[in-house]
Amino acid sequence: MATKLSVLSLFVLLVTEPGNLQAAADQLQEILQETKQTRQAEQAKQLKAKEQIEQLKRDQQSSQSQQQLEQIKQQKSDPADPEKPQAAQTQQQLDQLKNDQQLQRLQTDQQLRRIEQDKDPLRQQQQINDLQRQQQIRSLQEQIQRNQIQQDLERLRQQNSR
Questions:
Q1: What proportion of the chain, given as a percentage, has pLDDT over 90?
Q2: How far is CA 119 from CA 45, 49, 54, 125, in A?
Q3: Do residues 117 and 54 make contact, with C-beta atoms less than 8 angstroms apart?
Q4: What is the Cα–Cα distance from 1 to 5, expressed in whole angstroms?
Q5: What HEC string does 54-101 produce?
Q6: What pTM does this model have?
């Protein structure tokens, strides 16, 4: 809304005082720069919100996997059980995944703060694009890890049912 009013006032200035063409061009450039910065700030906010949603999903999946593993451990509480090492290994994988996710969350927050502080709009946009690509890659890698853990849990569950 403010941008429309600024552009309108700029147009009125041009029509009423044609000698102020340079001042009007400077004002227009400033308006365009502000609009671009606002758009980039909004992109950074959306990126942060998307990362938070993804993190909540990952946390939920990790919790579900942890619960499944606990159920498997409770079903087989025999100390001479040969499946204990597999359960321990799966637990270790889950713990490592949680630690990796927490570290990635902190690194992403740090990157977003750096992006928001950058005053160069072109560099800021490039950093936003890079971070989005990194998040997509990381999300796919984590999905592969979660799938592997789920397969391990399913294997343990099947062995328990024998």
A1: 4
A2: 16, 22, 28, 11
A3: no
A4: 6
A5: HHHHHHHHHHHHHHHHHHHHHHCCCCCCCCHHHHHHHHHHHHHHHHHH
A6: 0.60
